[in-house]
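Field reference: sequence -> structure
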Amino acid sequence: MKRTALFGLAIALVLLRAFVATRYEGFFFDSDQAIVGLMARHLSRFHHVPVFYYSLNYILAVQAWIAAPFFWVARSSVTVLRLPFVLLNAGVAVALVAMLSREMALAPELAFVAALPFVIPTPATANEMLELAGANVEPIAYVLALWALRRRPIAFGVLLAIGYLHREFTIFALPALLVADWREWTRSMRVSVRRGGVMLAAFAVVYVVVGFAKARTGSGGIGLQAASLAGQMCLTWRDLVEHGHALVSEALPTLFGMVPAPLSAFRMTTDLVAGAFWVWWVVIGGLIVMLARTLLTARRTPTRAPAPFAAYLTLCGLFTALAYPLSCNVALHTPPLLRYLLLAVLIPIGLGAGFLARERSPLWRGLVIAALLVWSAANLTDNVRLIRAAAADRPVSEHRLLADYLVAHRIRYARAIYWDAYVVDFLSRERVTVASTDIIRIPEYQDEVEAHAADAVMLQRVPCSGDERVASWCVQKP
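Structure field:
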């Protein structure tokens, strides 16, 4: 009964943190996410069968495949598009609590407390876990599933390949598993080599099949994924130092709500600032207690091994954080790229769960539990504040106003910058075809608009001049 109640509470907290992004289409929806919606709509109509995110050689089109069945049941919209990922977030929360309890012999309430950094994160992180830009919470789901499948090499290899092709950070589950579960792997080298070979073979089969499917779409071979990823890496010493500084001073504190961060910096339509400096001291204080007590008890009981599952979660998050400075997209004094860091949420979960499973002193356990609860209460407060702010001042989708205007005036073809084009395409349910004037993701739209160039209007951002002014645009007729 207690376990069921805790599962229900975890689901309720996930629904709470997902409410604003799901309920208000004008809060957090842009062209990156609209493309996933368009992919899902095309798939639901069997118009296209996307393998990767449109016009990219990486990010497997898993999100489109997840969302497409929902478009069979209901008309496509931001809410319907977001719904399966709200359910996935809730499922991951329940799985995390259940696995922490089972794998580490933790009481359900302690497992729930340890999972709180995922269940109720700060609003910036919570909304990134619902972002529809190719991958959000799925890598965390892959990490949990890979642990469950670690003794089933074929299933493990298949899922690892899918996870890697979907979001490359999933590959960190492999070294994390080897390190965390090293006793199992070194028990019999013959068995381990055979098991590893089966995993590799299953991985290779999926990789080849996906590569063949990608080539059939005319978008090139699977090797372009590695080339695309390599092209985004900056490995000079100066870059590593600057990006490492950004990780420690900006990215991780923002991810964990340890510094005030305006949500508008993450493309969210609100004036709310979430996070607080005092949370830094709560988190760091809890971390110091855990590390100090872990070192002390390790000296007293040196034969006692840490829980493999806790180490696995911690390492998955740590490897992801260490990879963050390698990206050329990282820049100082700009909003951090939280989508590159979502797996790092597993660091405090793994550390907290490992400590609660190992520690026997009620005092020190109580201090760490208190730190996790206070931290989560701060995140909960910010999420509630966000809901109240959205209810009091409903986020308006200017793109919705523009799409409705174009449909009402029977304007079928238009051109606009990337950040406007694909949002209007999706919100209008493709009753208006808008071609991008800069970044092109769907060449078919370009060709269609070009074929009707005489009828295509230009959607120019203000300041501008034109025949009609709609929200932040001028509609300039040809």
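Note: The two ends are 67 Å apart (CA to CA).
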